[in-house]
């Protein structure tokens, strides 16, 4: 059985470790006990939306980014579980691409200030209003 709290904990731990931060630093910044944050990261405790918001703020990560990564992990876990059970899994929608930064220097030939935007990895059309 796939447990959402374990996937969420794994993603939170990876986010924290990418930043080179300790449990103590994040727990202090999020104003949550070190032990409770540790249990959330290990998938032993369910985190409330308020707690997740505080942890995301402490990690300077948008909750939508966190949930997107959890969603991608869940999709992979479901595929792995169905492959192990030899059951076909209906594909309902393509997996959303990760976001990449792109720079825009002009729109339809009109010079603009340099702006960095977030856009899907595949090509997109940008229309000036």
Q: Main traits of this protein?
A:
alpha+beta; 16% strand; two-stranded antiparallel sheet; elongated; 129 residues; disordered C terminus; 50% helix
Could you give the topology of this structure?
Elements: H1 4-18, H2 23-30, H3 34-41, H4 49-59, H5 63-84, E1 99-107, E2 110-120
Antiparallel strand pairs: 1-2
Helix pairs in contact: 1-5, 2-4
| Number of helical elements | 5
Beta-strand portion reads 15-25%
Sequence of strands across the biggest β-sheet: 1-2
Cα radius of gyration in angstroms: 19 Å
Largest sheet: 2 strands, antiparallel
Low-confidence stretches: 100-110, 119-129
Count of extended strands: 2
Q: Label the structural class.
A: alpha+beta
**SSE sequence, one letter per element:** HHHHHEE
Mean pLDDT: 79
Helical residues, percent:
40-55%
Query: Which shape, going by the Cα principal axes?
Result: elongated
Distance between the termini: 48 Å
């Amino acid at each position: 059985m796939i447990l959402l709290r374990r996937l969420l904990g794994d993603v939170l731990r990876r986010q924290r470790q990418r930043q080179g931060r300790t449990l103590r630093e994040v727990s202090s910044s999020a104003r949550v006990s070190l032990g409770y944050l540790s249990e959330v990261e290990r998938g032993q405790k369910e985190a409330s939306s308020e707690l997740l918001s505080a942890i995301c703020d402490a990690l300077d990560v948008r909750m939508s980014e966190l949930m997107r990564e959890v969603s991608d992990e869940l999709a992979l876990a479901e595929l792995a579980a169905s492959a192990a059970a030899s059951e076909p899994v209906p594909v309902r929608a393509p997996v959303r691409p990760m976001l990449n930064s792109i720079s825009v220097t002009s729109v339809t030939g009109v010079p603009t200030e340099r702006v960095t935007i977030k856009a899907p990895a595949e090509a997109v059309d940008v229309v000036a209003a």
